[in-house]
Amino acid sequence: MKKEDLSAILKANAYPGRGIVAGRSADGKYAVSAYFIMGRSENSRNRIFTVEGEGIRTEAFDPSKLEDPSLIIYAPVRVLGNTTIVTNGDQTDTIYDGMEKGLTFEQSLRSREFEPDGPNFTPRISCIMNVKDAKYDMAMSILKSDNGDPHSCSRYTFCYDELKAGEGRFIHTYMGDGNPLPSFEGEPELVNIDGDMEAFGKLVWESLNPDNKVSLFIRFIDIASGKYETKIYNKLKGD
Known about the structure:
This protein has helices at residues 6-12, 42-45, 91-100, 105-108, 197-207, and strands at 19-24, 30-38, 47-52, 55-60, 77-80, 83-87, 124-132, 135-146, 149-160, 167-172, 189-192, 213-222, 228-234. It is of the alpha+beta class. The chain has a single domain, classed as Glutamine Phosphoribosylpyrophosphate, subunit 1, domain 1 (4-Layer Sandwich). The strands form 3 sheets. A 6-stranded antiparallel β-sheet has the order 11-10-1-2-12-13, with helices on one face. It has a 5-stranded antiparallel β-sheet with strand order 5-6-7-8-9, covered by helices on one side. A hairpin with a 2-residue loop joins strand 8 (135-146) and strand 9. Helix 1 packs parallel to helix 5 (197-207). The longest helix has 11 residues, at 197-207.
């Protein structure tokens, strides 16, 4: 698979929806994760990321304007032991609870499917990053409707060992704008991960469509120690 320029991919797509990037820093020292949300409606755009424990949660920036919270208020990031879970919905909790009981990532998601927001039927995208004993591996998942069929869910899991320095995988909910919105297709895209946390976060944030971007989460986990640093960007807070 050809490695693509992450910034170019983002700039060429005005509405990838929600996206997860996971990989390894250019110097090889850090497990890297990014999660962003975008919005077209006032309800979707009325959000910010806030820190909650070792993870984050979405919140309404202006609670008085919050309409339906069911698919927009959730914990995108949680940490279970040495595993960082990143998703685009409340399946974060499903994965956390399942893995805590001894289920695998894939088994935990068997009870879930795409979002009930027809006609889009937004895919559920998820990622786990395992950092333990100075080793790092990760996996991604997408649960999507079978060509828009609300009665059929297609499930795909992608596992990656020995991630190369400066490389990551990028999965997002939509191929682009449209009505209905076209679901992501194929294997997660192979992309570059450049710079330190500040530089990488700035690259992603500035590459997202300025009208549609809402919030961005960046985390760099030291593979040797397991310690991490986090940066959050919120459009409505002027970040």
